[in-house]
Amino acid sequence: MTGATRPTLASRLGAARGLPGALLLTGPGEAVLAREAAALAAALLCPGGDPDGRCASCRRAAAGLHPDLFVVAPEGVQIRIDRVREALAFAAGRPYEAPRRVAIVARAELLGAESGNALLKSLEEPGSRMHWILTTTRPESLLPTIRSRCAIARVPPLPEAERLAGWRARGFADEDAPDLLLLEREREEAGPEDLQSFRQWRTAILEALESGLRGGKIAALVFLAEALSREEPTAAHRLAELLADAAAVQAGVDPPRHRSVAGSLQRIAHAVPRAALDRAALRAADAPPDSRRGNRRLHFESVLLELYLARLPAAG
Question: pTM above the 0.70 mark?
Answer without folding.
Answer: no
